[in-house]
Design a protein that fits this description.
Monomer. A hairpin with a 2-residue loop joins β8 and β9. This protein has 15 helices and ten strands. The protein is α+β, with helices and mostly antiparallel strands.
């Protein structure tokens, strides 16, 4: 094919991508050498935590052509996921409700994007004939955010997520590796400027500097990737977040531009949306598996799900119903969950005693006719 043919093909690829439900399609080459020192430094500091696969694959993550020999270009796509009537403020402000990251309320995005990317590859193959192509959606050692930025889908924000000027950051990324010399797109300028909102708003201080994330402190990592007990010092900071965290995105000024998705696969499941912590805690494993079928949540398993909810219940207000529900599962829970139940009960006890002391102090001050300045 001539260079003009490839230019036309690239144009059509973007049109087909939009038809398949992607909000944006960009194209870049496979050269990520500039990212290799940064990746090595991040791994050397242990910021990946228990995500051993990141260290195991090493610099392969920055070398797409080694994943699929013969690859010349990466077709990078984004798909918006913010649900209609997301209810974020209500969920976070009510400690009796469970906050689940907005991306996880619907169908597993891995499946949605991968199937669309396969169909995009089929469309391309119908035009070019033989095609070497492979889709990726968080399914291989690949630096998808630098690739997306290089393909012009946005810039990497200080929270390490990709930001688009007109769409914010509430979107998924996917890649299609191809052996075609397509023309590449230009990156866009970083527009974070002097803003540091995401750094100062992170509940656990996981964003330790601009463009540097210590995953070991990140609530998304703690509730999803981390196995074993959650560090006690971080538990009170998690609030009612039981799966993922959106705080660094919620505070980002660019997300004022974020558009709600009309993708049917991302419509929130009623059982997860606006759910109370107590109702989710009462699920047995069979209910958990049924309610999370086809959801990204299912992969953390029932015990980590209970672990996360136990922490959130401990961070919430005391009630007889919560106290009884925690005690009821104490004997049958796994050792991991038992540890977090004991912590939650102790936390509720401390909060109750603190509230009782404050109430008693107010009563004494009122009786003495003095204002309470405490």
């Amino acid at each position: 094919m001539t260079s003009l043919d490839y230019t036309t093909l690239a144009h059509h690829i973007k049109l087909w991508g939009h038809e398949l439900g992607f909000q944006q399609v960009g194209i870049c080459d496979t050269d990520l050498q500039v990212e290799e020192p940064r990746l090595q430094a991040w791994l050397a500091k242990g910021y990946h935590g228990q995500m051993d696969y990141m260290a195991r694959h090493g610099l392969l993550r920055a070398r797409p052509a080694e994943l699929l020999p013969g690859t010349l270009r990466v077709i990078s796509v984004r798909m918006d996921y913010l649900p209609q009537q997301a209810g974020i403020a209500r969920q976070l402000s009510d400690p009796t409700l469970a906050y689940i990251s907005r991306y996880a309320l619907g169908r597993d995005y891995h499946k949605v994007l991968r199937q669309r990317l396969k169909r995009l590859a089929q469309r391309i193959e119908q035009v070019v004939g033989a095609l070497s192509a492979r889709p990726f959606v968080d399914s291989a050692p690949l630096l998808e955010r630098p690739l997306a930025a290089k393909a012009g889908l946005g810039w990497e924000g200080k929270h390490t997520l990709v930001i688009h000027q007109e769409a914010g950051s509430f979107f998924f990324l996917g890649e299609l590796l191809v052996d075609l010399p397509l023309p590449v797109d230009e990156p866009v300028a970083n527009q974070c400027g002097s803003c540091s909102a995401c750094l100062t708003s992170c509940p656990t201080g996981a964003i330790i500097g601009p463009y540097e994330l210590d995953a070991r402190r990140c609530i998304s990592y703690l509730t999803i990737e981390h196995d074993g007990p959650i560090p006690e010092s971080l538990r009170p900071l998690m609030g009612n977040r039981i799966y993922g965290c959106d705080d660094c995105q919620l505070i980002c000024p660019w997300n004022r531009q974020a558009k709600a998705s009309d993708e049917a696969d991302f419509v929130p499941r009623p059982a997860l949306h606006h759910a109370s912590l107590l109702s989710l805690w009462q699920w047995d494993e069979t209910q958990f598996l049924a309610q999370t079928e086809g959801s990204p949540i299912r992969r953390i398993g029932y015990h980590k799900w209970q672990r996360n909810i136990a922490v959130a219940l401990g961070n919430g207000p005391y009630s007889d119903a919560v106290w009884t529900a925690l005690h009821t599962k104490l004997e049958t829970a796994s050792p991991l969950v038992q540890e977090h139940i004991h912590w939650a009960l102790a936390q509720l006890q401390r909060n109750t005693e603190r509230q009782d002391n404050k109430t008693a102090r107010v009563i004494r001050c009122v009786q003495k006719g003095m204002p309470d300045h405490a």
